[in-house]
Amino acid sequence: MGIINMEELKCRIHVFFAQKGLLMKKIVMTGGGTAGHVTPNIALMPALRSEGYEISYIGSYEGIEKGLIEAQKVPYYGISSGKLRRYFDVKNFSDPFKVIKGYYQSIRLLKKIKPDVVFSKGGFVSVPVVLAAKHCKIPAIIHESDITPGLANKLAIPSATKVCCNFPETMKYLPEGKAVLTGSPIRQELLNGNPSDAIKLCRFENTEKPVVLIIGGSTGSRAINTAIRDLLPELLKRYNIIHLCGKGNLDGTLKDTDGYAQFEYANKELADMFALAALVISRAGANAICELLALRKPNILIPLSAAASRGDQILNANSFRSSGYSYVLEEEAVTNTALLEAIDHVFSHKERYVEAMEKSNGTNSIAAIVSLIDDAAKRNRFLNQSKTIWKGSTIINSANRIIKCSYFSNTFNHFTESAVCKS
Length: 423
Description:
About 45% of the residues lie in helices and about 15% in strands. It is of the alpha/beta class. A seven-stranded parallel sheet has the order 3-2-1-4-5-6-7, sandwiched between helices. Helix 2 crosses helix 14 (about 365-420) and helix 4 packs across helix 5.
């Protein structure tokens, strides 16, 4: 029996990993609750696949993320999740137990999937996944879109390896050494829309009029919807209107209004709508405004009020206003007159807004984030393979010692047997 050397050991371990399918890089992505916690993950997927990653996703059982991710043909695993509220609610007594359950479910899933790295886009479902990653000694990278971290990310940051952020102002709220200014990943298909397809979809007859696109979020905004519809007779004199009004907010009485096209939500069609739009009215979610910046679209931001949120959209909007990218109209100030004046003002000065956006120091967010993911994954794989090789070498060294001992024992027995025979 020969003695096994280290090179042979490494070769055998490499073959073992290849046979078990363990050489392909693996990533688990998480995030959900709203589309804003999912679409950046979707934006990263093509680049991750091109880098050789096998992608899995952990989200809630029936959240908005489930349908969006399954449409990407990515394996989806649902876990128990609970909302962490800043206000009194009876569910505050039961939801912590759901989070604990989700934590143990995440541990089991991570041990089953064996990812090299976890990437989280936030939302309450992501908290147990990031905590479980730390327990399993898997590096976790999280992304914070807003200027100030949300509660879910605040809970996850101590367990994260790196924290990507969108605004320079956010860096002061994050731990030194973890914070990386990357910007927000934008779906590349949004940059390649076809305005002709949007015209066909909306059935606009007068294509000479400029188009105003209104985006009220996945659930819509009652204040924005009401103001736009009240202003329709006046707006339609000068503009065609595409109105994304949110689920359940279609107005049947306006169905056949020429120049007005209403939809609950837009998916693939959104790129074409953006390409056609001369001006966009939007909420001020971080992902939405970064898309507007990337597309260089003159815009009016109507942030969600502080009464209905933690005020993150107000901070986002003010940041864009101070940079000259956006006109901001507070939700409490939305009246028919104020909105009409804002539309006319931005349209009259659209070149100024485009020029300001052209000067923005935008980074290649997707490349920056994928690079961080790859660095963390490589480091983790190196550590894991080093441990495996170390354990393997320990076993082999022990085996070699046994082999050597057996050799000398056999030699000694042979010598003593010969001596006895001679005597």
